[in-house]
Amino acid sequence: MNRIIECVPNFSEGRDRAVIDRICAAMEAIEGVSVLDVDPGAATNRTVVTIAGEPEAVLDAALAGAKVAAELIDMRQHSGEHPRFGAMDVCPLVPIAGVTMEETVEYARTLAARLAEEVGLTIYCYEHAALIEERRNLAVVRAGEYEGLEARLQDARWKPDFGPSTFQAQTGATAVSARDFLVAYNINLNTTSTRRANAIAFDVREKGRVKRAPDPLTGEIVKDSEGNPVWEPGTLKAVKGIGWFIEEFGVCQVSMNLNDIGMTPVHTAFDEVVRASAARGIRVTGSELVGLIPLRAMLDAGRHYLRLQQRSTGVSDAELIKIAVKSLGLDELYPFKPEEKIIEYVLAAQDSRKRLVDLSVRSFVEETASESPAPGGGSVSANVGALGAALGTMVANLSAHKRGWDHRWEEFSDWAEKGKACHDELLQLIDRDTDAFTAIMNAWRLPDGSDAEKAAKEEAVQAAVHGAIQVPLRIMEVALESMEVAEAMAKDGMKASLSDAAVGALCARTAVLGAGFNVRINVGDLSDQTAKESYIQQAATIATAAEEREAKIRALVEESLS
């Protein structure tokens, strides 16, 4: 899986388009980063930029934007409606795919240190990246805003996490964080009553509503011993919400910000609004996503609704997205286009590289047969392995749906999920193998005139060779793992699909042995004898296990067929 993080830097300039364009151009110039959205606000005098890509490239882009902002924005001249205390005011990082929150925290702290060292900014870390517990809340960190920053910096308790403790009049301070993806999400109701929509929003949002006395005649606000209103929390954590009327569509919506989709996923919010609406005699008719959403959120929703139907969840991403869209009613107001709404798909559409995995069967075969040295045996092994894993997944999905086996749907669904994970990774390894070969070729082309150049070239070649070994070794591991599904299906799956399980096992064995040859030929370029022997031993162990498992599966199938 590609490793993707999102970065949403907020700059204290929303009126001068030339300044905004120069900041964005600096970030967009970094290879491997896409600028997904630029949202300037004149009243707030603030621009929110959304970029995404590989983590290291995103950090470079954020740094590039910060340098331009530090040069062109003068906080001494700034005014606007939004709270702020710096030229680059906040800079949150968000894990999208292939990156954990813990890793994102480390990236955020690395970025914070670089912004301090390379740009000279005063930096505070907040939310998940906070180094001091009381600094988790951005409002606390930014209290007093720019105007109060100079005095605050004289308080030892507010020494910055990174960068100068003296007041930087032009740039102010910057807050860096790691947080989960924020989803702006509206749920459509069959009512025109804003008051009723608001009541539903208050039922579900974390903040809830002000508590009132049960007396229907007075309904007075309940207060605590200090005279402050008492709040009754709603049912959904990390959710903000209000009800409003949409003139364009003639209906009300519950409009929500899902601040932590790990805590409250989209489908959980939808189901809870359905429940709260029904309790008030109102029906949910659909919903609407504002902006982008991570792929994982859509896949989780698809799996959730398939489980409610007691259906296998080990189906394609396209099918999971389709189920999610229909279950959430995301296409009620206008067509839902995954390529425009799912962040990974938006990034993929902007990637101009030709990927083998996107070729048709015929094109892949013809590309393999051409004079080009890639794709070669490694990519073909990954492709064959993906087909083998897909066959095991198919048998599991068919078995989960077999009449009379309804009580076993979850058993087969789990196997289908395992098979899908294998064929998904093997598909990615098709291109990773070719990329590894290209890396070796590029390393060999490096200059080697001086002793320093020779040393640098040798280091680059050896690193590339390690990569060209580790990719086929991973193909072997995943293909072997997929044989667990083939064996389970040969033993317990639909008898009518026995041959499919057998072919899946044969494909997996071919993938393992084929990728093993790649490992063995590539270790020849390694200078580290210990690493070479280790790689050879690992490949031999996996190959032996694959041959034994394939023989066992074939024996199971032969016995059943006879």
Write up this protein.
The chain has 562 residues and is of the alpha+beta class. It folds into three domains: 4-178, Formiminotransferase, N-terminal subdomain (Formiminotransferase-cyclodeaminase, Chain B, domain 1, 2-Layer Sandwich), CATH 3.30.990.10; 183-348, Formiminotransferase, C-terminal subdomain (Alpha-Beta Plaits); 354-561, Formiminotetrahydrofolate cyclodeaminase monomer, up-and-down helical bundle (Four Helix Bundle (Hemerythrin (Met), subunit A)). 51% of the residues lie in helices and 14% in strands. It has helices at 17-28, 55-72, 101-119, 138-141, 149-152, 194-204, 266-279, 295-308, 317-328, 338-341, 343-350, 361-369, 377-400, 409-444, 451-492, 498-522, 529-561, and strands at 4-7, 10-11, 33-41, 46-53, 88-97, 122-127, 173-178, 183-189, 209-210, 231-232, 239-246, 251-258, 284-290. The strands form three sheets. Strands 1, 2, 3, 4, 5, 6 and 7 form a seven-stranded mixed sheet that branches. Strands 11-12-8-13 form a four-stranded antiparallel sheet. Helix 13 (377-400) packs antiparallel against helix 14. The two termini are 42 Å apart.
